[in-house]
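For reproducibility, we list the full input for the magnesium ion complex.
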Amino acid sequence: EEVINKIAAGEVINRPSAVVKELVENSIDAESDKIEIRVKNGGKDLIQIIDNGQGMSKEDAKLALQRHATSKIKEANDLFSIRSLGFRGEALPSIAAISRMEIKTRTEDKLGGTLLKIVGGKLQKAKDVGCPVGTNIVVRDLFFNTPVRYKYLKTTSTEMSKISDIINRLALAYPEISFKLSHNQRKLLESPGNGNRLDGILSIYSKEVAKNMIKVEHEDKYMKVNGYVAKPNINRASRKHQSFFINRRYIKSRILSEAVSEAYHTLLGKNRYPIVILTIKLNPILVDVNVHPTKMEVNFSREKEIFTVVRDGVKKALDKSDL
Ligand code: ADP
Ligand code: MG
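The corresponding predicted structure, in tokenized form, follows.
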């Protein structure tokens, strides 16, 4: 069991940003509207996620540390049920297996909460504590018992920029959640969480960028595209500033980037890319989506339809605005 956890962990939890992504996604799933992420030394020393979500009972928290213990029902409308098969109910035990973890959690219907301490996957302590409703997870000394993995970590600033990147994108996708990120006690981001997408964009980019974003709203028979794209004068030298979300999960997709490029067509010079934040809603029954858990790279069936709806949505937005 312990060995399996370590192997599973190595495959998907390959760096601090993967820990952050999994834990923050859990906080989002628990319906938090405030999520604070504290990081020390690029996540190598400490990652702490504090949310105000549903929390867990003592029994559920203990259960969550076992493999494949997921409270999330695999419904047909869970787009990522395929991904889920790969990694459902594995994040928490995987991370616990390769770190020193502390979980403090409380549900609304209880006056007190639970504290669990786990070292290298072994539960060392479980006791009652006073704590606010929600979940507070501390992950210390990541990879302390998998030295090979530790050796492959990049510099603190590289690891930290990967973490920032993920939180920035999540803040863009979930404007109704307030995200706060700090590194070595220095605040890097605080998104307002007021539901306004442009305010979210403003907390990450400059005023200049926020001022020059165009709203995208488009749908066809199968799917809906919403979000913002930048006017052609606001562009970047890479696709790093293009974020796509399918049914609110961040994904990477070359196809969708290409759809955007095609919509801009002659509006942009060679190797220039607009800032893009697009959310695609679709009925998961219609597409077969396959996500590689670490790469977040998606394979679709019906690629062509998705390509078309994104291209047309962006085109329509560009046509309507005065550039
Ligand atoms: P999954 O998210 O696929 O269910 P995880 O290993 O990431 O698997 O989490 C296991 C379970 O632990 C979740 O299904 C959920 O019930 C519980 N859990 C994890 N993190 C939180 C959190 N921040 N708030 C409430 N429950 C949580
Ligand atoms: Mg999870």
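The chain has two domains: 2-190, 206-320. Residues 214 and 319 are 10 Å apart (CA to CA). Both points were considered when choosing residues for closer inspection.
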